[in-house]
Each structure stands twice: as C-alpha cells, then as structure tokens.
C-alpha cells in the first residue's frame, strides 16, 4: 500500500495545488488508520459519522468501540437499542447499525473480487447505508484507490478553498476528478487533511 501511496503522490503532484497539499501533509497521512477487519464495525463507524462533525464522530466512535470491545457480532446484535442511544447514537442510527450486523450475520460476500459499483450496489441495499457510506467503505476498508465522493461536503468545500472556486459546476468537478485519476481516493485524503487543518493553497487560484 505504501508503494501505491507514493505513486499516487507523484501523479497528484503534477497538479500544482495538489502538489502543495502533498508537500504539506504527505508525512501526516496514514491511509490505514481507520481500517477495521470487521466490516460490520467499519460500516457502523461510518454510519456514526453521517451528518455530524469530525470531532463529535471521534467521541461517539470511541464510546462505541468501548461498548463492543471483546464482543462477537452475534453479541453486538443483542445490544439493546437504548444502550446504543446512551452513548450518543440516535435511535435511527442505532437501527441502521443493527441492520448492518444483521446483513453480515446472514450474508458472506467476497468484496475483494467485486467492482466498486458492485460493492456500492450491494451495501446500499442495507437500510441506512447509502452511496457516501459505501464509498467511504471502499476507501478506508477495501483501499480502492480511485474513489471520489461528490456528495461529501468537506471535500467540496476543500476544493472551493484550495482552487479558489465559489461555485463548482459538474463539468469543472469532472475535470478535476479526471486529472487526479486513477488516484482520487488519495486526493480525497489530502483534501480532507487540508480542511481539517484549515491549511489551503494560496494565493487564490482563479483558473486551473
């Protein structure tokens, strides 16, 4: 994976703005820091992250990790919904997490041999798991290297800040995604790092 990351950094650095981000954050990024071999737990953590702040998600995920520590998937399935709510998970998300563990309890899928589109279609069949969650799973659990999530507001805001664009048209976004391909997942890592640290390319870029 490290060789892939190095190759991606070299490719992305052909873009002067991405080159700036690579120089700033390359040594800080650990692509594998959110990996969990238990896919049900990985997706549950992504559900927790849905529509809440980065800091709040860290807190709730830590509580969830402490709660399920040492448990099997079967034992996690038996956790009372009220118990999940007590650690800061909404009732709806608690139900979604149960759906995920039920899915993996009754299904066994070989994600390694599935295309990105196949994984997204399969996971999106679980109530509570949509396109964004499936894309994050592809990036952080399956380490697929060419995933971009256009519905991720942090990514879009990071692009606006770094590229000096007030309104991103689809055509403009497609051009950037094409430029970063086949390493869009790694480009996302740098864009997220940029906005989390509030460090952006300067001066403002009017054209790219």
Short description:
By secondary structure, the chain is mainly α. It has twelve helices and no strands. It has helices spanning 2-12, 16-25, 39-49, 54-68, 73-77, 81-85, 91-106, 116-123, 131-140, 153-163, 170-180, 184-197.
Explain what this protein looks like in three dimensions.
This protein is mostly helical and 208 residues long. It folds into 2 domains: 2-31 and 148-197, Endonuclease Iii, domain 2 (Orthogonal Bundle), CATH 1.10.1670.40; 39-140, Endonuclease III, domain 1. The protein has helices at 2-12, 16-25, 39-49, 54-68, 73-77, 81-85, 91-106, 116-123, 131-140, 153-163, 170-180, 184-197. Helix 2 (16-25) crosses helix 12 (184-197). The chain is globular and about 55 Å long. 30% of the residues are buried. The mean pLDDT is 94.
